[in-house]
Write a structure and sequence with these properties.
Elements (H helix, E strand, L loop, with lengths): L6 H4 L10 H52 L2 H4 L2 H14 L12 H4 L3 H8 L7 E5 L7 H17 L6 E6 L8 H14 L3 E8 L1 H5 L14 E6 L22 E5 L2 E2 L13 E5 L9 E2 L2 H5 L7 E6 L1 E2 L11 E2 L5 E6 L4 H9 E2 L5 E6 L14 H6 L6 E5 L5 H8 L7 E5 L9 H4 L17 E7 L4 H12 L7 E7 L8 H11 L1 H5 L3 E6 L5
Helix pairs in contact: 7-8
Length: 523
Amino acid sequence: MDLKIPTSILRLFQTNCVPSPMDTQRINHLLAEQKLELSFIGHELDCARAEVSRLEAKHSVTMEMVQKLEALRSPVRRMPTEIMTKVFEQCVQDEESQEPDPLRAPLLLCQVCSAWRDLMFSLPCLWRTLKVGFPPATPNWENVMQSRIMSMHVWLSHAKALPISLVLQHPSNSPITWGALMLLDKEILTLGCRIEELSLGFSPLALSSLLTFTQSPLPRLRHLELHNSNPLPSNDNPPPLSLHDAPNLRSLSIAWGSLDTTQFCVPWSQLTQLSLQYEASPYWSFVHNDHLNVLRECPNLRYCYIGIGMIIPETDTDRAAPVTLPNLESMKVRLFCQTLYTQQFFDALHAPKLHTFEFQNVSLAMGSFASQTEPLPFISRSAETLENLSLDTINISDVNMVTCLSQLHRLKHLRFLPGPLQLNHNLVDDLILSGTPEGYSICPGLESLSLKCSKRISTDRVTELVASRCSASPKLAQFCLQLAAFDYGQDSRDKTIAELRQRLNQYVEGGLQLHLMKAKPTG
């Protein structure tokens, strides 16, 4: 309704004036009318809210029915169980590690619907792998251990009788109590006959209490990994490894600070993969006995990962009998310190089928030696089969490097990242392909090339290198260049990278994968 307020009352708004007796009567009358109008409006609002609530409820019911009807038409309902099984298997395989995490497969898939949950629990292959992590510290290790073991029971029960893969890790911030370790040791021993792959990452003292399973038959064990999780060096080491009954063991990985394999009882001749490493800080010395004695007993090795540090004194270490690994395809070596043993090791080793060789100096972050040519004769002996070569933080003179590379006619992938003492190498010039048929070229079949140079590298020569390789057959598919700066003065690497990116853009458009970057301050 239209509200008509007298002019005498309107004048009183926004003032402190007192209404007259006549205006007061009019105000009381107007106020009563407005309160009545307000009650009518409130009633209408209540009705409108009730109607909105009714419509919202009706909308929710209708939407629920629409979703149910649409679900009936979903292609997933018509997907055969065999295909769903393959999808679930792929989801589980895509996970880096299977942990009892409700936000990751397979537990995440179990939460979708009852049908998926029933299907998941009916597929033992989805529950064969389990990773269990232990907290850095806890006031009650026994309770934590019992909880973890119960989770393992529930998880692995879905795997039925299938072989299992188990990863157990503890960051070693605080020691696990002896009672808790005994509970875990008993559980591993109980599962021993089913274990196909086992990885234990604990402190040396904890590992010493978890090796009872090695005394029992391990008929299905194919991969065993024993790693020291303590980042600091320690004089404590687990007892010598003794595997009395592991007929199917093919892969062994051990990473201890002091590794003496002379007392090990391991079926070395069965192994196709072997890793003898050290995972603590590279600033601490890795101590081990002569690796050649172990490799001599491993004629079937295909993959080998070795760490070279300080050698444990042995008799007759000046002369080593040749060791031939007739099936070795890939070898990775990490150098923790420079000793005469490095030369002895590579001089004695022969790998006639070697395809991949990686050599990394981790003794010091900046690189510590002027020349590291020990592996070059070994590389040359594998020239007829070598396809992948990686030298990281290794200082080799231009003459020695070119002499070695000139023999590697089958090389497809080269990664040469020298230390600071050899950044001004001429390998860019040497790798430029000759444009004439009678010209001599080094590594003509390169498909991937990764180099590290000083910031003073000539952009013209880099461009010429890429151009010659991209126009060859096979043409270069990937090129990576790291620019390092160890001298004082203005850092012009960003400008050099921008210039190279512009000049090499035509080859990127032709399919080249180009990576130009500044090297890390440590080299």
